[in-house]
Amino acid sequence: MSKPEVEFPEGPAPSSLEVTDLVIGDGPEAQHGGTVDVHYVGVEFESGEEFDSSWDRGQSARFPLDALIPGWQEGIPGMKVGGRRRLVVPPELAYGPAGAGHRLSGKTLIFVIDLLGV
What Gene Ontology molecular-function terms does this entry list (predicted)? Predict the structure, then answer.
C-alpha cells in the first residue's frame, strides 16, 4: 500500500467517533489492550491540514493501544491486518477541548490507518 489520500466528509464535524473500513484486511485482528504496528496519516477536519504521517517518516509506528488517544483505542480493535480504516475523531476522543494544552486540542481529526501487524 502507499500513502493514502484523505477524502473529506461533507457537512459538519461529527460529535461521535466515525469508523469506516476502506480496505478489509484478512490477517489477525487487533484486540483491546494489544499492540499494533501501523502506518497512518492524520489531518485536521476543519482545515484539511496534515499534522502527522508515519509515511513521511518512512517507517511504521508500533504502539500499545492503551497508550493512544481514546478514538484509536475504540476505533482500531476489530480491524484486521492488511486493512485500511478511516477514523473521524471528535476532540473529546482526541486531545480534549480547546485549551487542554495540546496544539490539536479542540480539533476534530481524521486518521487513515493501515494495520500492518498486531
Answer: peptidyl-prolyl cis-trans isomerase activity
Q: Which domains does the chain have, with CATH numbers?
A: 18-117 (3.10.50.40)
pLDDT in tens, 63-77: 999 999 999 999 999
Asked whether 108 and 88 are in contact (CB, 8 A), the reply is: yes
Strands 84-89 and 50-53: unpaired
What residues contact 79, with CB distance under 8 A and at least 6 apart?
Answer: 21, 25, 29, 30, 85, 113, 115
Confidence category of residue 31, pLDDT binned at 50, 70, 90: very high
Dihedral angle sign, alpha carbons of residues 91, 6, 68, 100: negative
Rounded CA separation 6/47 (Å): 12
- pLDDT band of residue 23 (cuts 50, 70, 90) is very high
Instruction: Report yes or no: 79 and 10 within 8 Å, Cβ to Cβ.
Output: no
Complete DSSP assignment for 40-104: EEEEETTT--EEEEHHHHTS-EEEEGGGS-HHHHHHSTT-BTT-EEEEEE-GGGTT-STTSSSTT
